[in-house]
């Protein structure tokens, strides 16, 4: 039996569904948040109380070059230090820092790979198992950014 292919950023097409299910932190620190309350699919919106997409997936004008570029994720504008949640249950596959993406956590699970970038802190370690809705990092502005946001 052939394994199913790993899809990067799966679920990006249902941003509107998740936006309806965003949980507010109420200002108190939490270790996890509820997953989607519109359907029991085991997913969580990665930045509770923040739903503004500052740059969608697809072609855009590069903010630093002014040239057309393909944006391989969704940028969610959020306050620096805001909690970043695991969007799915799975395993932390990699934590890295690059010049363009800054501090980045790669999460694998459900046959999907999720990249969470420009973080100010990571609260997990490589190989760690996480559950959807668990706080795993903090929003930042590391790497090449125009301001604090989560690249998902």
Return the structural class. mainly beta
Element-by-element helix/strand order: EHEEEEEEEEEEE
Mean pLDDT: 79
The main pleated sheet reads as: 7 strands, mixed
Question: Would you summarize the structure shown here?
Answer:
This protein is mainly beta and 152 residues long. It has one helix and twelve strands, in the order E-H-E-E-E-E-E-E-E-E-E-E-E. The longest helix is centred in the N-terminal third of the chain and has 6 residues.
Q: What distinguishing features does this structure have?
A:
three-stranded antiparallel β-sheet; seven-stranded mixed β-sheet; 152 residues; 38% strand; disordered N terminus; 1 helix; single chain; mainly beta
Please characterize this protein's 3D structure:
- With 152 residues, this protein is mainly beta.
- Helix content is 4%, strand content 38%.
- The protein is built from one helix and twelve strands; from the N terminus they run E-H-E-E-E-E-E-E-E-E-E-E-E.
- It has one helix at 15-20; strands at 7-8, 53-55, 58-61, 68-71, 75-77, 83-85, 90-98, 102-109, 112-122, 129-130, 135-139, 149-151.
- Strands 1, 6, 7, 8, 9, 10 and 11 form a seven-stranded mixed β-sheet that branches. Strands 2-5-12 form a three-stranded antiparallel β-sheet, with no helix packed on it.
- A hairpin with a 3-residue loop joins strand 7 and strand 8.
- The longest helix is centred in the N-terminal third of the chain and has 6 residues, at 15-20.
- The radius of gyration is 15 Å and the shape is globular.
């Amino acid at each position: 039996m052939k394994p199913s292919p790993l899809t990067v950023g799966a679920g990006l097409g249902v941003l509107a569904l998740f936006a309806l299910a965003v949980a507010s932190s109420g200002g108190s620190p939490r270790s996890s948040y509820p997953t989607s309350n519109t359907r029991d699919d085991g997913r969580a919106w990665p930045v509770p109380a923040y739903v503004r997409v500052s740059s969608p997936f697809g072609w855009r004008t590069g903010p630093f070059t002014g040239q057309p570029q393909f944006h391989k994720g969704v940028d969610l504008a959020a306050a620096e230090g805001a909690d970043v949640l695991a969007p799915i249950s799975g395993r932390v596959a990699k934590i890295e820092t690059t010049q363009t993406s800054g501090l980045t956590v790669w999460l694998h699970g459900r046959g999907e790979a999720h990249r969470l970038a420009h973080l100010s802190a990571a609260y997990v370690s490589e190989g760690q198992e996480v559950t959807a809705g668990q706080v795993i990092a903090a929003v930042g502005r590391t790497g090449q950014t125009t301001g604090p946001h989560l690249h998902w």
